[in-house]
């Protein structure tokens, strides 16, 4: 096998069968879930200039289209924000997927005829473009213009001033069926651990798949040794792309689909922890802790870095967090590179042990949050304290879920200045996200910059802002969003009170029936 695993492909079927074959002797059961996905395929990509033709590679989800116009080379997004009518935009392939998506969306708004990305040898499997600039959770459409990648050597002829360029792409979408593998070790049904991963986007090399499957097998086996917990391995399809709704947030369709089904059946209420395993993704293995921390420094194995500022953006663990299930992501794990397997096993066992005691877990999360608060607004601290105290009504497990759901909300800030595009993402509000951009603000020489503040539910602010007052703007946004969070939490408490009241009535009637 060669290339990368695509959702709904024959290669995916083979990879799932390989994974099942390696894991099934070590688990009590396996099952296969099929889900609808979209396949994107292309047959032609050509760039023409001055009678010369150059082959290119289109980006998903570019469709069948032709763009023609005068070349315009841009190195900053400020140029892209200008008028691009009748122009073919030439832009160096961005290092960040967020800059890529933003740039293409802005070029569409500015009237570009096509976008030619120069370079991109290290193109990420997850790189996909749609019409929107911001990856929010809303259905979107293909860009409608060619968006292609051209090697730097071939692009030199395009960069001549006033060169007239034609870009042609033949590509399209079709319906397909993705495969998600689920396998379990039976144990305490009220204490379920998920080990989640995804197989789409992995190299199709049989040796790699075998080593990766063996690593997953060892993690599951380690988790199952702790206190008789039930352990379920889920290898999702369509994590990188394949969402049939073409949401602007293109990631994790497989986990969003399956966890939505489990939630509707109340099956997720039994899940106390997700350990998300992400292959590759960087030069070094790293850990992204639960937004309300549950890891201690002495539990981190050597050779694996704790990414304290990391967010769960574009990871399947974010789907779990949205359902209130605590999650820790292990990213950049490369089974073909020697890593600390014993340390990984001990880390797994530490996490499972921590999740078994909800009261201890709640205390650990609370202590970790106190250390992360910094200069967050008082309203934020007040709500955190209320959620912590809600264990009296919700119980410790319910409070863990409420706390996890609240602190997992993503707050994202894009800052476009003369120095370029900068993205800062946090689970602790817009003020915390802005702290990640503080160095950029200090280096900025201009007074104003374009600021886009957004979360998965939509854009909160898109304006030209005086950089000196940006911290005050972020605090105001946090205060406004906290009002909504308070309202939602109040409704959660009301619903739980009603549920317990109804449960009391049912229990009382059952007792009366037994007495008769």
Automatic annotation (TrEMBL):
SUPFAM superfamilies (alphabetical): Zn-dependent exopeptidases (SSF53187)
Taxonomy, superkingdom: Archaea
Gene Ontology molecular function terms on file: aminopeptidase activity
Keyword hit for Hydrolase: yes
Alphabetical keyword list: Aminopeptidase, Hydrolase, Protease
UniProt keyword Protease, yes or no: yes
Protein name, entry field: Aminopeptidase Iap family-like protein
The species this protein was found in: Desulfurococcus mucosus (strain ATCC 35584 / DSM 2162 / JCM 9187 / O7/1)
């Amino acid at each position: 096998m060669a290339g990368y695993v695509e959702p709904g492909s024959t290669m995916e079927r083979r990879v799932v069968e390989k994974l099942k074959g390696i894991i099934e002797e070590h688990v009590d059961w396996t099952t296969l879930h099929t889900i609808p996905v979209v396949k994107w395929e292309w047959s032609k990509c050509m760039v023409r200039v001055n009678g010369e033709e150059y082959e290119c590679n289109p980006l998903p989800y570019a469709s069948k289209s032709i763009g023609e116009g005068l070349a315009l080379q841009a190195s900053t997004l400020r140029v892209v924000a200008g008028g691009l009518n009748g122009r073919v935009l030439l832009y160096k392939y961005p290092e960040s997927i967020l800059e890529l998506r933003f740039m293409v969306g802005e070029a569409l708004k500015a009237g570009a005829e096509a976008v030619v990305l120069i370079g991109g040898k290290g193109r990420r499997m997850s790189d996909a473009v749609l019409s929107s600039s911001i990856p929010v959770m809303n259905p979107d459409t293909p860009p409608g213009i060619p968006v292609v990648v051209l090697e730097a050597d071939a692009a030199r002829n395009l960069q001549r001033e006033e060169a007239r360029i034609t870009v042609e792409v033949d590509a399209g979408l079709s319906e397909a069926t993705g495969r998600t593998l689920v396998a379990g070790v039976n144990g305490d049904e009220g204490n379920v651990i998920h080990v989640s991963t995804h197989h789409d986007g992995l190299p199709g090399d049989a040796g790699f798949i075998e080593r990766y499957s063996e690593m997953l097998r060892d993690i599951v086996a380690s988790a199952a040794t702790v206190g008789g917990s039930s352990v379920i391995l889920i290898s999702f399809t369509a994590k990188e792309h394949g969402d049939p709704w073409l949401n602007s947030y293109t990631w994790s369709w497989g986990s969003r689909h399956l966890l939505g089904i489990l939630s509707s059946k109340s099956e997720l209420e039994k899940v106390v922890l997700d350990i998300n395993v992400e292959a590759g993704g960087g030069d070094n293995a790293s850990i992204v802790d639960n937004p309300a921390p549950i890891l201690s420094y002495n539990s981190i194995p050597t050779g694996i870095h704790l990414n304290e500022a990391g967010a769960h953006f574009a990871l399947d663990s974010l789907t779990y967090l949205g359902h209130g299930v605590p999650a820790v992501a292990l990213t950049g794990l490369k089974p073909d590179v020697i890593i600390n397997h014993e340390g990984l096993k001990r880390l797994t066992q530490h996490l499972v042990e921590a999740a078994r005691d909800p009261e201890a877990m709640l205390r650990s999360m609370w202590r970790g949050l106190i250390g992360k608060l910094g200069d967050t607004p008082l309203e934020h601290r007040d709500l955190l304290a209320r959620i912590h105290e809600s264990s009296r009504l919700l119980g410790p497990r319910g409070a863990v879920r409420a706390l996890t759901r609240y602190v997992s909300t993503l707050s994202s800030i894009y800052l476009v200045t003369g120095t370029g595009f900068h993205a800062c993402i946090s689970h602790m509000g817009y003020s915390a996200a802005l702290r990640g951009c503080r160095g950029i603000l200090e280096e900025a020489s201009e007074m104003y910059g374009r600021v886009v503040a957004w979360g998965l539910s939509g854009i909160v602010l898109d304006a030209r802002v005086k950089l000196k007052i940006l911290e005050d703007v972020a605090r105001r946004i946090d205060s406004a969003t906290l009002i909504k969070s308070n309202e939602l939490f109040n409704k959660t408490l009301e619903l739980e009170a009603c549920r317990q009241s109804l449960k009391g009535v049912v229990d009382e009637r059952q007792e009366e029936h037994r007495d008769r």
